[in-house]
């Protein structure tokens, strides 16, 4: 009965979304306050119904209801409870329900917390949000019903893919979706602004928190995914330029650009039409990611059994949202008049450079991701675009971006003084040069790229700290006065420092592991030793371990260096229900480096293939990412976002008819 | 020097052109040496297509062909599209799902002696899935269109939207 209730709740949510997507929009166009007022209860109701559907699906997984097809395919009675719950979104149908649930959550939040939004803008935003909901709920109901029953029910399920039975991956999709779907808010605000025909500082102030929240979620989601890839795939790679990764990176890049251009709209009342375009494109790229992943059009995208119908459905949604959005943009954007003028060397100019580089990087990633698809479509043969391509195009664009990131925050709005800004950065520059030279010396003519990478990371950290020191006039006025200035700063100032410094730390981690990693591979008998990066690894042999739904060969190695001792237990697991083997690497970290050991195949004579890596600085990638997210959160608590936007002048008779 | 609207628009256009130009230049230079074309064992045997540069080889691992040579870390095996076999050499740990009779995609270069030296071996971790390269190789070798077999009774399982890389278990 409960699955049917869930299904029914989904259908009701679809109907409510239809109401939410039509009446408020018409009401806003005709100035009917009561029609517009429908948006609020509809948005909250839709969220409630979807929550009900989601909980119903979760219930089916938790009690292992094997009359539900989705549970049969993705669960097993012996599966640990955590993965029964996370298994709800570990499959196509369930993850779509999570997708629309988060979409409705954002809608409900606007309905509940957007009290100070002008009623027409709010009605239009919720209306657009409702239309997106209509599209995706229809998609679920028509092609991906998670509550489908099977008759006769099997005795037990086929288990969740063992690679997904992992805490890192369990929480990766919710954050990723929070990011993807969060950008729908920016999209809805952009479309609503286009319909209204006005974009002003108040609008930017409403959009920014939603974009910031989405950006935080997406950053965390991407970081969790790469962390999972690092420890689960068994060789310590953390980024593969795989199409699915690119699908999440592209909205992140344009979302980051949006985050920064929205500041310009808010503070300087300019770059409006560009910001609107970015909002449309960012959500479009989120949808493109969804399409690429679920349609299986790309080779290395993991779509195992693909239903072409689903791909076409999402493609149509993508074309409607992106095409409709861009068409409306083309009609309405010329009406948006830019405000403040500025010189090329200014904070605005710096942010434009940031935007251009981010968008260019997105374009190159897009080309690399879609090229195999296009070539195949025109009969040019099957081809794969690998990491060398992406490294060759992405790094040259990242270098100037990072350089500009250090200088930009030092420039004044409107008209900046580059020489003064550079002068204030002398301390950062000195630190960078000294440490970079030290790095060259230490690694005796180490690769140029490595030095460049280390310098870039340090530059970001040092310039972010310098910027903060400048703000509080550290060492120029008494420390107590500096401290008072520090505590008096707006939260967004802390956010800037944290986010920029966090990226610097992450870059150091990326460079450290990419350039300086060491690797040994050896066939070892128990008692034998290998040495890597100053550590001596002693192999103690392999024993059998019984897990809840797997059996495992668990190796034991002891790593020793200067009195530091770690025990490493890499495993090879066999999941009999899913008929799959997985490799569980063992990692010991000193926070400056990781020792990473994977267990290979056994030999007939009782020896085992052991592969060990030394990954310097690798934990910094995720520490840095978390600091970036923290910066986002701190910025999100800024007073001016909490208190809300300045009151708009009355719109009065200038209400535009809807397109 | 505040810019007039017109001049500002020109600067905007100029910046966009620079951005696009940079992107195009980077993409074109990078494409030159980092594209890996897909080839089947038949392509290699018949030498009907250019075989220099990086290649992705797809097919099935031939039964009883996996052999360890030398120190035991290097593996040789045959990849077949049923029409022709191609010998592949690889050093390292094979992916968990690498099995005889299963689909495999190897990436690397063809040596002058005709051995395919792979630096990457990919095996899908889902038994019901067949990589498009493998399917195409078999199809071209005269097997008709192949469709990934679905598990009996229920739809084949899908695992979506986590990480692309988890489908390709990379050694």
Task: Describe the fold and architecture.
The complex is a heterodimer of chains A (659) and B (171). By secondary structure, chain A is an alpha+beta fold. Among the domains of chain A are: 1-165, Four Helix Bundle (Hemerythrin (Met), subunit A); 518-617, no CATH class. In chain A, 62% of the residues lie in helices and 11% in strands. Chain A contains 22 helices and eleven strands. In chain A, the strands form two sheets. In chain A, strands 3, 4, 5, 6, 7 and 8 form a six-stranded antiparallel beta sheet that branches. In chain A, strands 2-11-10-9 form a four-stranded antiparallel beta sheet, covered by helices on one side. Mean pLDDT of chain A is 85; it is low at 299-305 and 650-659. Chain B is α+β, with helices and mostly antiparallel strands and 171 residues long. Chain B has one domain: Nucleic acid-binding proteins (OB fold (Dihydrolipoamide Acetyltransferase, E2P), Beta Barrel), CATH 2.40.50.140. Chain B has three helices and eight strands; from the N terminus they run αβαββββββαβ. In chain B, a hairpin with a 4-residue loop joins β4 (74-80) and β5. Chain B is elongated, with a radius of gyration of 22 Å. Residues 144-171 of chain B have low confidence and may be disordered. Chains A and B meet through α4, α9, α10, α11 and α12 of A and α1, β1, α3 and β8 of B.
């Amino acid at each position: 009965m409960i699955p049917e209730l869930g299904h029914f709740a989904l259908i009701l949510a679809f109907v409510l979304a239809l109401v939410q997507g039509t009446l408020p929009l018409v009401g806003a166009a005709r100035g009917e306050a009561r029609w517009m007022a429908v948006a609020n209860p509809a948005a909250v109701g839709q969220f409630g119904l979807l929550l009900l559907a989601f909980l119903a699906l979760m219930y089916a997984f938790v009690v292992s209801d094997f009359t539900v097809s989705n549970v049969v395919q993705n669960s097993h009675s012996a599966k640990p409870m955590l993965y029964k719950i996370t298994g709800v979104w570990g499959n196509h149908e369930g993850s779509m329900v999570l997708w629309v649930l988060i979409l409705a959550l954002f809608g409900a939040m606007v309905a509940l917390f957007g009290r100070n939004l002008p009623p027409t803008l709010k009605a239009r935003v919720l209306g657009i949000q409702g239309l997106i909901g209509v599209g995706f709920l229809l998609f679920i109901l028509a092609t991906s019903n998670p509550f489908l029953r099977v008759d006769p029910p099997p005795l037990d399920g086929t288990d969740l893919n063992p690679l997904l039975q992992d805490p890192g991956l369990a929480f990766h999709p919710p954050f990723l979706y929070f990011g993807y779907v969060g950008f729908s808010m920016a999209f809805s605000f952009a479309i609503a602004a286009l319909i209204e025909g006005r974009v002003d500082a108040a609008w930017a102030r409403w959009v920014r928190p939603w974009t910031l929240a989405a950006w935080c979620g997406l950053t965390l989601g991407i970081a969790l995914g790469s962390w999972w890839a690092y420890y689960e795939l068994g060789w310590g790679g953390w980024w593969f330029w795989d199409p699915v990764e690119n699908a999440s990176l592209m909205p992140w890049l344009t979302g980051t650009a949006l985050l920064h251009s929205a500041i310009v709209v808010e503070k300087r009342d300019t770059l409006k039409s560009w910001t609107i375009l970015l909002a449309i494109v960012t959500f479009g790229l989120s949808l493109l990611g969804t399409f690429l992943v679920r349609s299986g059009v790309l080779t290395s995208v993991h779509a195992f059994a693909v239903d072409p119908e689903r791909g076409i459905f999402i493609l149509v949604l993508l074309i409607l949202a992106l095409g409709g959005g861009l068409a409306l943009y083309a009609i309405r954007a010329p009406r948006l008049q830019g405000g403040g003028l500025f010189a090329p060397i200014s904070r605005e100019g710096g942010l434009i450079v940031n935007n251009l580089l981010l968008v260019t990087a997105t374009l190159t990633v897009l080309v690399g991701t879609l090229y195999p698809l296009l070539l195949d479509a025109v009969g040019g043969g099957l081809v794969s675009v690998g990491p060398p391509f992406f490294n060759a195009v992405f790094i040259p664009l990242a270098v100037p971006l990072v350089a500009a990131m250090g200088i930009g925050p030092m420039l004044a709005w409107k008209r900046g003084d580059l020489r003064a800004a550079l002068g204030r950065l002398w301390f950062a520059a000195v630190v960078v040069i000294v440490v970079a030279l030290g790095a060259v010396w230490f690694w005796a003519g180490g690769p140029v790229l490595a030095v460049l990478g280390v310098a870039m990371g340090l530059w970001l950290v040092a310039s972010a700290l310098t910027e903060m020191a400048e703000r509080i006039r550290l060492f120029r006025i008494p420390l107590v006065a500096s401290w008072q200035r520090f505590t008096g700063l707006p939260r967004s100032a802390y956010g800037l420092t944290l986010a920029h410094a966090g990226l610097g730390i992450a870059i150091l981690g990326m460079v450290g592991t990419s350039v300086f990693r060491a690797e040994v591979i050896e066939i070892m008998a128990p008692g034998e030793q290998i040495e890597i990066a100053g550590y001596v690894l002693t192999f103690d042999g392999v024993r059998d371990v019984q897990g809840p739904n797997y059996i495992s060969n668990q190796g034991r190695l002891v790593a020793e260096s200067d009195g530091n001792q770690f025990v490493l237990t890499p495993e090879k697991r066999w999941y009999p229900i899913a008929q799959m083997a997985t490799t569980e690497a063992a990692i010991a970290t000193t926070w400056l480096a990781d020792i990473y050991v994977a267990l290979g195949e056994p030999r007939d004579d009782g020896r085992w293939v052991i592969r060990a890596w030394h990954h310097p600085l690798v934990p910094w990638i995720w520490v840095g990412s978390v600091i970036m997210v923290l910066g986002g959160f701190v910025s999100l608590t800024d007073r001016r976002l909490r208190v809300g936007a300045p009151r708009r002048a009355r719109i009065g008779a200038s209400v535009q008819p809807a397109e | 020097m505040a810019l007039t609207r017109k001049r500002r628009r020109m600067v905007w256009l100029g910046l966009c052109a620079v951005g696009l130009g940079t992107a195009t230049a980077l993409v074109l230079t990078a494409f030159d040496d980092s594209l890996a074309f897909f080839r089947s064992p038949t392509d290699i045997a018949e030498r009907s297509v250019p075989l220099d540069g990086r290649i992705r080889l797809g097919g099935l691992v031939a039964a009883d062909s996996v052999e360890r040579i030398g120190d035991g870390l290097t593996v040789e095996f045959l990849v077949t599209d049923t029409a022709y076999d191609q010998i592949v050499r690889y050093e390292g740990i094979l992916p968990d799902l690498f099995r005889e009779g299963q689909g495999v995609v190897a990436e690397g270069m063809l040596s002058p002696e005709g051995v395919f030296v792979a630096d990457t071996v990919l095996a899908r971790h889902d038994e019901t899935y067949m990589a498009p390269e493998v399917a195409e190789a078999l199809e071209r070798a005269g097997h008709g269109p192949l469709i990934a077999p679905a598990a009996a009774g229920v739809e084949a399982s899908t695992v979506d939207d986590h990480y692309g890389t988890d489908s390709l278990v990379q050694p």
